[in-house]
Design brief:
By secondary structure, the chain is an all-alpha fold. The chain is 57% helix and 0% strand. α1 (11-24) packs across α2.
């Protein structure tokens, strides 16, 4: 998968985000990965 140079999340990062959303909720998970939620 190609990601542009300014992409905040890679495929693996998106996987981690989904896992953390399921465990922590959207705002906490997004904050922990440095993206807005």
């Amino acid at each position: 998968m190609n990601s542009h140079k300014n992409a905040r999340l890679t495929a693996h990062g998106r996987y981690l985000l989904v896992q953390r959303i399921a465990q922590q909720g959207l705002k906490s998970a997004a904050h922990s990965l440095g993206v807005s939620g």
